[in-house]
Design goal:
Layout (H helix, E strand, L loop, with lengths): L6 H4 L15 H11 L7 H16 L2 H6 L2 H8 L9 H30 L11 H9 L1 H10 L10 H9 L2 H26 L12 H18 L11 H17 L2 H5 L2 H20 L9 H11 L7 E2 L6 H5 L21 E2 L2 H14 L6 H9 L1 H4 L7 H12 L12 H20 L10
Antiparallel strand pairs: 1-2
Helix pairs in contact: 2-3, 3-5, 3-6, 5-6, 6-7, 6-8, 8-10, 10-11, 12-14, 14-15, 17-18, 17-21, 18-21, 20-21
């Protein structure tokens, strides 16, 4: 598939406008781009997903910030449906799409068709959707291999990205092997979930269906090699060693706790633990837990959600690392392991109540607190669904060159962390209440 950029779009200023409305969000721009992009192109669902994913990856790269500017990188990186009326910046985001995001999305997206063309044969129609969804999981596998490679990731630098886009065939063979081994693993896991040959099969699944899958798996293995083995169960001492590495990393880096909400660090700890356990299960030598820093960065991005969800945990973060953080009071950061039953509550109500609670906190006025209160105005309408990752970018932009007169922070980065902490603390304290009805607003 061609990975040539669709120049006719990004060379036309304001191509996305509708009836003179110039405000748009990143995700809306992606949708319009995919609809207007030249054919041949990946399946719509896959193309949308890959465009969003590559936009996010590129928006976080320093060389993109230098090539375009920080605001363009932020607009490209933040997954949101909140429109911003910044036509000049969106023109530049469109140029980023045309130069890099679109060709990379086509390059990874094409592996959906590569995998689907090698699907098991002779399956009943009722399994068509199952097989289609398996093929749709292959492009992210290819994308991961493009981003992280022993030969260097394709977006490590502007030079590496330009070289790949100019000649994607140079890596196509190795990417095909990685993608198809991933597809084999998906087929293998599906058969294992059904029980496999010789086992009692679920209703509607026949021995012929199992044979069709296993025959295809054997054929693909003969062409592309064995996929990574499924992870094994870890021994208790192996799990304990992973936990020790994570705990040591936290204790050796106290700034992680000082600069971040405990819930964020706790979630990063949990994700890092899962990744490290997987590495151990695959036989890799795990000697440190530096991945915790990467997971913390990804957790920050994941606070862009349509609803605020409170999830029960099995073990408190404080118990895990032997720390006593913010027990009670208005500075309560919450607990990584609060035994709360999962529930959903109306986000607008939470944000409105959180704003009222924050206004009532007995603390000296400061720029950071005032900014957080303003962010929660009108039920947080300015920021879709408590998108604290994007709020951080707004703080950085609002700080300007000189510090505000009543700011407590010395730098814009400290101010962004402070505002984010204030917001998380306020929202967490409200969301943890058993009955929001007792706190009318």
């Amino acid at each position: 598939m061609s990975v040539n950029p669709v120049q006719h779009l990004w060379l036309t200023s304001g191509w996305w406008t509708d009836s003179g409305v110039t405000g748009i969000s990143r995700d809306q721009l992606v949708e319009k781009w995919v609809a207007a992009a030249t054919k041949p192109k990946p399946e719509k669902k896959v193309f949308l997903y890959e465009m969003r994913a590559w936009s996010g990856e590129l928006g976080r790269r320093e060389w993109i910030k230098n090539l375009f500017d920080a605001r363009v990188a932020t607009l490209a990186a933040v997954e949101t449906k909140v429109p911003f009326d910044e036509p000049e910046s969106w023109d530049e985001v469109s140029r980023l799409f045309g130069s890099y995001v679109d060709p990379l999305a086509r390059a990874s997206g094409e592996f959906r068709d590569v995998a689907h063309s090698r699907r098991p044969e002779g399956l009943p129609q009722r399994l068509a959707s199952v097989v289609r969804e398996m093929a749709r999981k292959v492009p992210p596998i290819a994308r991961g291999a493009m981003i992280v490679s022993q030969d260097g990731g394709v977006i490590d630098s502007q030079l590496s990205a330009d070289q790949f886009i100019a000649d994607p065939s140079a890596r196509h063979e190795i990417l095909t092997v990685v993608a198809m081994r991933g597809y084999i693993a998906l087929l293998r896991d599906y058969v294992a979930a059904l029980g496999g040959s010789g086992q009692e099969l679920p209703e509607g699944i026949t021995a012929e269906i199992i044979d069709a899958f296993e025959s295809r798996i054997a054929l693909l293995i003969s062409e592309y090699g064995q996929p990574p083995p499924p992870p094994r169960e870890l021994a208790a001492e192996e799990e304990a060693q992973v936990d020790r590495l994570l705990d040591e990393t936290l204790k050796d880096n106290p700034d992680l706790l000082a600069d971040h909400n405990a819930n964020l660090v706790g979630e990063a700890w949990s994700r890092a633990r899962k990744t490290l356990q997987g590495m151990v299960a695959r036989g890799e030598d795990v000697t440190h837990a530096g991945i915790l820093f990467t997971k913390l960065a990804s957790v920050r991005q994941d606070y862009n959600r349509a609803e605020w969800r409170i999830v029960s945990r099995e073990q408190s973060y404080e118990e895990r690392v032997g720390l006593d953080i913010g027990k009670g009071g208005t500075d309560d950061r919450g607990s990584f392991g609060s035994h709360l039953s999962e529930r959903r509550v109306e986000l607008t109500q939470i944000l409105a109540v959180a704003r009222k609670a924050l206004e009532d906190v007995p603390m000296e006025p400061c720029w950071e607190r005032d900014f957080a209160i303003e962010a929660l105005a009108d039920g947080g309408a300015r920021f879709e669904s408590g998108d604290f990752a994007s709020i951080r970018q707004f703080v950085l932009s609002a700080w300007r060159d000189d510090a505000p007169k009543n700011a407590r922070s010395k730098t814009r980065e400290q101010a962004a962390a402070a505002v984010e902490f204030i917001l998380h603390s306020a929202v967490q304290s409200v969301a943890a209440r058993e009955d929001l009805g007792d706190h009318a607003y």
